[in-house]
Design goal:
Shape: globular
Number of domains: 1
Radius of gyration: 16 Å
CATH topology: Rossmann fold
Number of strands: 3
Oligomer: single chain
Structural class: mainly alpha
Helix content: 40-55%
Order of helices and strands: HHEHEHHHEHHH
Length: about 190
């Protein structure tokens, strides 16, 4: 699940790892997601440790009487000095770096931030721990748009340049089957040549 909406989503600010809470609409989105998933056979609920995701997960966990298990590896990509800025501000003040990142997302990070490769490594680490513990189970994970897009790119073997278009809307959920995924292939795709 991508966390519900925040005021920074509305304002077009890049949140990254700034701990912004859900707004009123975000709480309503989280409630709707929980209601739409309440008939799924969910056995565990995981979440990024950032508040907007854990608040989102809380609605679903309450429906199943499960705890929310938080994990920092599910955090949004760290946007460095771009966190809190609008995209227009980033494009005007960091034009060259922004364009380089769009072309080479695995290698180029915002100043003080993470590369796609770094986010992928922590996502794979989380999946390596999750899959053996929950084989053939349905688990819910509340995380962030970039993390969800990266998982989709890796699962579908799409080019990394498609990341920006693959980010789902706030308050939406997607279903992935990962039991039979070869995580070593994910790792090899993330290696910078």
């Amino acid at each position: 699940m991508r966390h519900g909406e925040t005021d920074w989503n509305v304002e077009g600010r890049w949140q990254g790892q700034i701990d912004v809470p859900l707004n009123v609409n975000g709480h309503q989105q989280a409630q709707r997601m929980a209601e739409s998933l309440m008939h799924a056979p969910i056995t565990a609920v995981f979440s990024s440790d950032l508040r907007r995701a854990s608040e989102t997960a809380g609605y679903l966990a309450a429906k199943f009487n499960l705890p929310v298990q938080t994990d920092a590896r599910l955090r949004e990509i760290h946007q460095g000095v771009w966190q809190g800025l609008r995209i227009s501000e980033i494009q005007s003040n960091y034009r060259s770096r922004f364009q380089s990142r769009e072309k080479s997302p695995l290698q180029v990070a915002p100043p003080g931030g993470e590369t796609v490769q770094q986010v992928g490594e922590r996502l794979i680490s989380f999946l390596e721990d999750l899959i053996p513990r929950h084989t053939q189970e349905t688990v819910a994970i509340a995380t962030h748009g970039f993390v969800m897009a990266l998982l989709q790119i890796l699962l579908n073997r799409e080019p990394f340049e498609n990341l920006w278009q693959a980010i789902p809307q706030s308050g939406t959920w997607l279903e992935y089957k990962v039991n039979d995924v070869d995580l070593s292939q994910f790792s090899s795709r993330l290696q910078v040549n």
